[in-house]
């Protein structure tokens, strides 16, 4: 569970809904036992229906998401038919199904906003993709929890297929969020410091690794837990400079830590509430805190003195908006993915701990993804 | 009363104290009845002592600020002797005496950080100033509540003397704060909207007028009070587009208001607490809120969704820091003062409502300045 959104503020409702699944999804008129042979007017060689995890109303994901058979539309000249390979269950997917996320698809909708697919057929005017290519969605809302999909060529972007499948499946949201936050808010140089809470989240783990690859120190704050030492060791193995518990932020010994690295220029906040205020307290004068999540379901509280006399900058980041803002500049997205894939190939960026789950075992996966302290990301394998 | 600062965060303690009064202030060794004739070794024609409002410890201003006679140092080659003409009592002056402000002078100290003085004598190597010039401090900490002062040439900047005395005395803090906040955070164009609370404050009144001169709409939020209509009329006469009570921000009728002007790109926050959160709620997507004061003594609370999905930018502004950041670029300060003086000459920027008080009546003035809902700024006339 992620953002407690009841009031939703959007650039434009139209924009936010523009790429949703309605156009790509036509419910089977034949039900689960449909005989699909009457689709033979299609020139397609492969399946004319697919299996999809569908929800028809908002609510508890494990109650309302059902595996259904849905029609696939014909491939247009600028479309591709893809086979989904793997798709994670992200907190934002859960919130979208619950109806509490900032963007909501028209219902019924297929769940999932991220994942990697393989092109199995291309339309006659498709130039940028060919059969066999791996692709990921350019934007949220494609409905990735399905076996196949017909997608507009320009709704996906190709990915090299020499990276691990789980890395590809989880590349488009968390690592992109981490990379942008580390790049776009402060001019970080080797030796600088970043502090973050939720350091064990998907974004947190990516931030540790990308920062380490750039020579940037990270102070990583996690909630206390029985296996703290084990977690700390794991994050340090990824490149974390320091791993501390929330309560350490409020203790005098935190000062010791700043003897080994400068005060942070940048804070990454995935929690909100007191945790965010504590991050702010340790920022350098003039530094930035960027909020990308609100797991504590509490607002960010900023002392007036920090704003006026310490000149802290309090910002937010949403990778979906970044992608939309750059939708006319594919080079920006391509450059970011290339940088991430290069780190993956060099062994400097691993996928977060994942649990691979067969597509048909989605229900238990949804439950697991909603538990607190989940130590692994659930990834559906199609 | 302004900022509830207990923990103070500074760029550098050294920097913050660098311009303070210690070097300029030597307590009279002769007490209030000192015979000053033994200072005849000075070539100076004018007074060798001056009267100053001094405090020797932090505490309640009306209890601890005393009118004392203090020695004036000799004028160095790069110094000027000035006669203070008028100096306001600002909230930050009060907080400095209370010991709760972000920068604190060495004690004993002369109160006051703003005001206009006239040059009455110049050192042999002074180039930028001549006798008769009006000057204002370049930085906080000069100790302006005094009759005369010997100041380094480069600690002051000249001002045209064809503007009203009260405008000159109150130019360096509030109008500069308003102008910078309207200039440096969002690219505002004629027809755009700014929303602000504390609209009746010195900064608020300056913001109304500068915005109006630039063709920018202002939505001005004030606390409810018996003479609301009178206040509203006064602010509208200055150029305010709308004047509303705090509670109106939370009511549906606020929507009516946005039929006549676009949603604000910029919010100016002098209050904090709920008031600040309400301003945020009405910002355009991607807009900025700039905090310059915290009258409510409550932090700024920002919903996580506003940061992530509405991309609001939460910032602070402190004119003292701006001046220090630009201390090597006098053109920037000069350009700002020229712009403000031009508006004053055109009748587009009036001083806030002021009560002129004789220098010796300072004690009552300090009391008055500390009352809530003060409708006029106390200005000491020397």
Automatic annotation (TrEMBL), chains A, B:
Enzyme class: oxidoreductase
SUPFAM superfamilies: GroES-like, NAD(P)-binding Rossmann-fold domains
GN (gene name): MECR
Protein name: Enoyl-[acyl-carrier-protein] reductase, mitochondrial
GO biological process: fatty acid biosynthetic process
Sample GO molecular function, one term: enoyl-[acyl-carrier-protein] reductase (NADPH) activity
Signal peptide extent: none
Localization of this protein: Mitochondrion
Residue ranges of coiled coil: none
């Amino acid at each position: 569970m992620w953002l407690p959104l009841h009031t939703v503020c959007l650039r434009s409702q139209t924009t936010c809904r523009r790429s949703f699944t309605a156009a790509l999804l036509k419910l089977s008129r034949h039900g689960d036992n449909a005989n699909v042979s009457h689709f033979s007017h299609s020139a397609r060689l492969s399946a004319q229906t697919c299996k999809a995890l569908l929800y028809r109303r908002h609510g508890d994901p494990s109650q309302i998401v059902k595996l259904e058979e849905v029609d696939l539309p014909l491939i247009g000249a600028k479309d591709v038919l893809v086979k989904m390979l793997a798709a994670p269950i992200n907190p934002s997917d859960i919130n979208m199904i619950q109806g509490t996320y900032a963007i909501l698809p028209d219902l019924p909708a297929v769940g999932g906003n991220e994942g990697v697919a393989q092109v199995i057929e291309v339309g006659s005017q498709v130039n940028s993709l060919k059969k066999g290519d791996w692709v990921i969605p350019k934007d949220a809302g494609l409905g990735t929890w399905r076996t196949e999909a017909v997608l507009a060529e320009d709704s996906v972007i190709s990915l090299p297929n020499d990276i691990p499948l789980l890395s590809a499946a989880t590349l488009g949201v968390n690592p992109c969020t981490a990379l942008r936050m580390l790049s776009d808010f402060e001019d970080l140089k080797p030796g600088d410091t970043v502090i973050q809470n939720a350091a064990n989240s998907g974004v947190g783990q990516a931030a540790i690794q990308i920062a380490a690859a750039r020579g940037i120190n990270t102070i990583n704050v996690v909630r206390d837990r029985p296996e703290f030492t084990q977690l700390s060791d794991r994050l340090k193995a990824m490149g974390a400079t320091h791993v501390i518990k929330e309560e350490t932020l409020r203790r005098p010994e935190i000062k010791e830590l700043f003897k080994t690295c400068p005060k942070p220029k940048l804070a990454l906040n995935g929690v909100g509430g007191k945790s965010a205020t504590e991050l702010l307290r340790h920022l350098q004068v003039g530094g930035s805190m960027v909020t990308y999540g609100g797991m504590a379901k509490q607002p960010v509280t900023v002392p007036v003195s920090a704003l006026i006399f310490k000149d802290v900058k309090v910002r937010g980041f949403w990778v979906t908006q970044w992608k939309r803002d750059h939708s006319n500049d594919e080079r920006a997205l391509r450059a970011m993915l290339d940088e991430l894939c290069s780190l993956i190939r060099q062994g400097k960026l691993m996928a977060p701990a994942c649990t691979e789950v067969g597509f048909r075992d989605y229900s238990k996966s949804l439950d697991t993804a909603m538990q607190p302290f989940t130590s692994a990301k659930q990834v559906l394998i199609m």
